Automatic annotation (TrEMBL):
InterPro entries: Mannitol_DH/Oxidoreductase, Mannitol_DH_C, Mannitol_DH_N
UniProt-listed Pfam families: Mannitol_dh (PF01232), Mannitol_dh_C (PF08125)
Organism name: Pseudohoeflea coraliihabitans
Superkingdom, taxonomy of origin: Bacteria
Protein name: Mannitol dehydrogenase family protein
Entry-linked PANTHER family: MANNITOL DEHYDROGENASE 2-RELATED (PTHR43362:SF1), MANNITOL DEHYDROGENASE DSF1-RELATED (PTHR43362)
Lineage: Bacteria, Pseudomonadati, Pseudomonadota, Alphaproteobacteria, Hyphomicrobiales
Alphabetic keyword roster: Oxidoreductase
Record keyword Zinc present: no
Mannitol dehydrogenase N-terminal domain segment(s): 28-276
Keyword Oxidoreductase attached: yes
Domain Mannitol dehydrogenase C-terminal: 285-473
């Protein structure tokens, strides 16, 4: 059955669907970056509110600034912006059709339609999922990259920008001129202090062309920090087939796990939906939740993804089932990361480690190692290296963290241990591969990538551990390195000679 408003009443039995009249919904949110995560997370929370008869004036208008977004718009428009969410629980699968998105602005050069929609006073929140590296950070990670061609273009052409942030600035300029007031900018990306990062990007870009407007935005708009969490694999043939198994022809279904979390500051200058009534948390200490999630979950992903890639393990659940990679995750997180993570209401760091182990072991979630390993240059910098710095400062253990960096360096050399090629998987893949190839003979070369490691290369304790692990990986292989770190091989590995991967 084709998915559309007209067929909602005839969906196969057992599929949950909107109980509200979608024709009576009015927009309140523009969301930029309508990927799978947004539709399984923020759009789902809003849908749940609408199912209770609430927030019908907060419907979502989708938007995007990349070529991919134009294709996504066509797919969703053809099915009235409905999405099938498929929950993958080992105990059984279920499906739900979500209807909280009602439109998707055209994706066009200069973003005129997007600017006009965000300038509409009915829009009170502009939210984004544009990936961790999509905020144009400078080399320090603490400022805006003023030399980036997109930023320079938007500064010189504020009325026809290239970036989502330039479009936000243009819309806010129009709202100020019309006396329509500000909107809230809400980042939903995996970034520490993501609201502050969004403020820095929008205000910093505005300042390049209109300092008075920049001051107005900084004083009147709000940019709440938030933490988001849900495992949402990319949609491929398997997900399309899952939708068909439920009797639905959905061009863009979304599969997801059973767990969701959304914690945010209650700082919305133009109002907000009551997301807390459907499980979201408003907190004055988002940083603690954020730190726990980023260091243990996002950092944990980087611990296992590079080892999995090198050993040709395709999925995260496969990594958890591996007799070396799963124990490696547990040992590093409990011994080297947990000491640098505080408890939050209702959850200790140790309990959180157990939670992510259960979530990642779900075989129904086909979350690929390749997806998790993507953009390691941003993810190692943001998720693992801050913990490493804390451990060095407090003289804590670092061997597992150093091994993680060595595994990443070995992965970026571009071949798995079975000899197959690892396709480019980072925005700066060529730079990483060049450094990794040189590091085969001189490991210290890898740490000289200042934009990633800063002054860590000068820390003798870390540098020595890293170089020793990279030498060991090239001499004896990934399995042998993991066995060495774990101290005692598991029963499955005792007496087995490790594979070698010489220079």
């Amino acid at each position: 059955m084709n998915l559309s408003n007209a067929t909602l009443g005839d969906l196969p039995g057992g599929i949950a669907r909107p109980r509200y009249d979608r024709s009576r919904l009015t927009p309140g949110i523009v969301h930029i970056g309508v990927g799978n995560f947004h539709r399984a997370h923020q759009a789902w929370y809003l849908h749940r509110l609408m199912q209770q008869g609430l927030a019908h004036d907060w419907a979502i208008v989708g938007a995007g600034v990349r070529p991919y977004d134009a294709g996504q718009r066509l797919k969703l428009a053809a099915q009235d912006y409905l999405t099938t969410l498929i929950e993958l629980d080992p105990a059984g699968r279920s499906a739900e059709v979500v209807g909280s998105m009602i439109d998707f602005v055209p994706v066009e050069e200069g973003h005129g339609a997007l600017i006009a929609r965000m300038a509409d006073p009915a829009i009170r929140i502009v939210s984004l999922t544009v990936t961790e590296g999509g905020y144009y950070p400078d080399a320090s990670g603490r400022g805006l990259d003023l030399g980036h061609p997109d930023i320079r273009h938007d500064a010189a052409n504020p009325g026809s920008p290239r970036t989502a942030f330039g479009a936000m600035v243009a819309a806010l300029k129009r709202r100020r001129a019309n006396g329509d007031g500000p909107f809230t900018g809400q980042s939903c990306d995996n970034l520490q202090d993501n609201g502050a990062v969004l403020r820095r990007t929008v205000v910093g870009l505005a300042r390049l062309s209109d300092p008075d407007l920049a001051d107005w935005i900084n004083e009147n708009c709000s940019f709440p920090n938030s933490m988001v969490d849900c495992i949402v694999p990319a949609t491929g043939p398997r997900e399309l087939a899952l939708a068909r198994d439920f009797g639905l022809d959905d061009a863009a279904p979304v599969a997801h796990e059973t767990f969701r979390q959304w914690v945010m500051e209650d700082d919305f200058c133009a109002g907000r939906p009551d997301w807390d009534q459907v499980g979201a948390t408003f907190s004055g200490n988002v940083e603690a939740f954020e730190t726990m999630k980023i260091r243990l979950l996002n950092g944990g992903h980087q611990l296992i993804a590079n080892a999995g890639e090198l050993l040709s393990v395709e999925t995260i659940s496969g990594c958890m089932a591996n007799p070396l990679i799963g124990p490696y995750l547990r040992k590093v997180t409990l011994e080297e990361i947990v000491p640098h993570v505080d408890a939050v209401p209702g959850m200790t760091p140790e309990a959180y480690v157990a939670l992510i182990e259960r979530r990642w072991s779900n075989p129904e979630i086909v979350d690929t190692v390749r997806r998790v390993a993507f953009d390691g240059s941003s993810r190692h910098s943001g998720f693992l290296l801050p913990v490493l710095r804390d451990a060095l400062r407090t003289s804590g253990p670092i061997e597992g963290l150093a091994l993680a960096e060595a595994l990443w360096a070995r992965m970026c050399a571009g071949r798995r241990e079975d000899g197959t090629v690892i396709a480019a998987n980072d925005p700066i893949w060529e730079q990483l591969t060049d450094a990794a190839q040189q590091a085969r003979q001189t490991p210290q070369v890898w740490l000289q990538q200042r934009a990633i490691y800063g002054d860590l290369a000068e820390d003798d304790r870390f540098s020595s551990a890293f170089c020793s692990w990279l030498d060991a990986i090239y001499a004896n292989g990934t399995e042998a390195a993991l066995i060495s770190y774990l101290g005692e091989a598991s029963e499955d590995w005792r007496g087995r000679a490790p594979r070698t991967a010489g220079r």
